[in-house]
């Protein structure tokens, strides 16, 4: 399985980079994982709704350019479907079973995702009703993907 994490913005915090690198390394026996960062759009304080939409649209175009037509897209969105770790594992297992070997998870910037990204998404996933920094979401996401593979293989780690 090929998993791509498309994300807006650069990761700066060393401790988050180290955690993500560790889980990507742990995922190596199960999947090829790549992380693609696109630059976030400069945004002054006090943006109007039109400014926010324009920023999301520009970031969305750059994200869409990184997707191939045969990629199954899972966007992280606060209004998305909430799953347990076991349910996420089942979703990934079913995708693999039905030949969907290219999966992209999309993490938007601080303003969220464009309507075009949400329309392109095959699934919208929410990790919580709370808002998390998008840099921290990368770590949470790779850990949950790793956990899903361990669950699907019946290997220890999950509990």
TrEMBL record:
GO terms for cellular component: cytoplasm. One of its GO terms (molecular function) is rRNA (pseudouridine-N3-)-methyltransferase activity. Keywords: Cytoplasm, Methyltransferase, rRNA processing, S-adenosyl-L-methionine, Transferase. InterPro entries: Alpha/beta_knot_MTases, RlmH-like, tRNA_m1G_MTases_N. Specifically methylates the pseudouridine at position 1915 (m3Psi1915) in 23S rRNA. Homodimer. It is found in: Cytoplasm. HAMAP family: 23SrRNA_methyltr_H. Its EC number is 2.1.1.177. CDD domains: RlmH-like. It catalyses: pseudouridine(1915) in 23S rRNA + S-adenosyl-L-methionine = N(3)-methylpseudouridine(1915) in 23S rRNA + S-adenosyl-L-homocysteine + H(+). S-adenosyl-L-methionine binds at residues 76, 108, 127-132. Its main location: cytoplasm. Belongs to the RNA methyltransferase RlmH family. It is an enzyme of class 2 (transferase). The keyword rRNA processing applies. This is Ribosomal RNA large subunit methyltransferase H. The keyword Membrane does not apply. Pfam families: SPOUT_MTase. Coiled coil: none annotated.
């Amino acid at each position: 399985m090929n998993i791509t994490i498309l994300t807006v913005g650069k990761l700066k915090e060393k401790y988050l980079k180290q955690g993500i690198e560790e889980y990507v390394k742990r995922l190596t026996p199960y999947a090829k994982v790549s992380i693609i960062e696109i630059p976030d759009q400069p945004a002054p304080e006090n943006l109007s709704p039109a400014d926010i939409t324009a920023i999301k649209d520009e970031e969305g175009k750059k994200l869409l350019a990184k997707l191939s037509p045969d990629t199954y897209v899972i966007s992280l969105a606060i209004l998305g479907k909430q799953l347990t770790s076991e349910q996420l594992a089942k979703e990934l297992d079913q995708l693999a079973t039905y030949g969907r070997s290219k999966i992209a998870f999309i993490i938007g910037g601080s303003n969220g995702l464009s309507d075009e990204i949400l329309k392109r998404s095959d699934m919208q996933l929410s990790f919580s009703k709370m808002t998390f920094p998008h840099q921290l979401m990368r770590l949470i996401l790779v850990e949950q993907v790793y956990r899903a593979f361990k669950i699907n293989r019946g290997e220890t780690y999950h509990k």
